[in-house]
Amino acid sequence: MIDDICDLGLERKFCRLDSGITVENDGSVSGYASVFGKADQSGDVVEKGAYGACLKAAAGLVGRVKMLWQHDPKLPIGIWEEIVEDEHGLFVKGRFLNSVQKGAEAMALVQAGAIDGLSIGYKARRTTKDSKGRRLLLEVDLWEVSLVTFPMLPEARVAGKADAEAGDLLQNVADAFAEARTMLVTHGQ
């Protein structure tokens, strides 16, 4: 199932965007699937231009890059109709397929704020390490962009109708973790 993707040598990079993804009532969705220059929780950083060769070779990747649910190749939930690289990152625009049960469910979950993450499935073509030991992705071959529960890039977030409430909740959770960390350090010494 999901591991079949890994058998092809594909990697996943999760993204939770500040600018978010916009979801409309008609099922259209747009936003950034990847942000340049930000380290994710595994230390990977996508560099500007990383998608350039892939996008050029596949004429924008429309139709080739799949919109999946939780990286499961058996669960396509929509279609990415536009994929472009700009100064900020990788912008995607598409639509959920409401006629597919999982597509309708995914749209409802994103609009409610229950699902707020994106993740790319890709194969690294060219990488290097920076002075901090982080892997810099210089060239990648993009295979899919998924809606996911747990993204790895904290700065990225999907935005739906409940965006303000979800943002407040996420900030409260982050504050609680920061306070707990401080208490552990203070009381642990």
**Overall pLDDT score:** 76
Straight-line N-to-C gap:
46 Å
What is the total number of structural domains? 1
Q: State which percent range the strand residues make up.
A: 35-45%
Biggest pleated-sheet summary:
9 strands, mixed
Q: What count of helical segments does DSSP give?
A: 4
Gross geometry: globular
CATH level 1 class label = Alpha Beta
CATH fold category name:
Serine Protease, Human Cytomegalovirus Protease, Chain A
Q: Which architecture does the CATH hierarchy give at level 2?
A: Alpha-Beta Barrel
Q: From the structure provided, what is the oligomeric state, counting identical versus distinct chains?
A: single chain
Please mark out the parts with pLDDT under 50 across 5 or more consecutive residues, or reply none: 1-7, 159-178
Tell me how many strands there are.
9
User: Residue share in helices?
Assistant: 25-40%
SSE run? HEEEEHEEEHEEH
Query: SS-based structural class?
Result: alpha+beta
Write down the Rg: 17 Å
Give an overview in words.
The protein has a single domain, classed as Serine Protease, Human Cytomegalovirus Protease, Chain A (Alpha-Beta Barrel), CATH 3.20.16. It is 26% helix and 38% strand. It has four helices and nine strands, in the order H-E-E-E-E-H-E-E-E-H-E-E-H. The chain has helices at residues 2-7, 52-57, 101-112, 163-188; strands at residues 11-15, 21-23, 28-35, 45-46, 66-69, 72-85, 89-96, 117-129, 135-148. It is globular and about 45 Å long.
